[in-house]
Specification:
Length: 77
């Protein structure tokens, strides 16, 4: 384990913990590695979402009602 890691306690559903243990055994990785990868991937997805929001900040806002109206006008609804 790297000296730069931080120890923490998390509480998992027993079935999820069992599944993680099995996956760790099958992949020759630790449960910590699997959890770290999952958290890293989730945070990366959040960063991508925030970047996409930032790129679209100047786009006009559309209301649900206006989208429905446009769909009706186009004959798609």
């Amino acid at each position: 384990m790297c000296a730069l890691t931080k120890r923490t306690t998390i509480y998992l559903d027993p079935a999820m913990h069992r599944a993680l243990q099995h996956k760790a055994l099958e992949t020759s990785r630790s449960v910590s590695d699997l959890v770290n990868d999952a958290v890293r991937n989730t945070l990366a997805e959040d960063a991508e979402d925030l970047a996409a929001f930032e790129e679209r900040v100047n786009e006009p806002l559309l209301t649900y009602e206006s989208v429905l109206k446009q769909l009706k006008n186009d004959g798609r609804l």
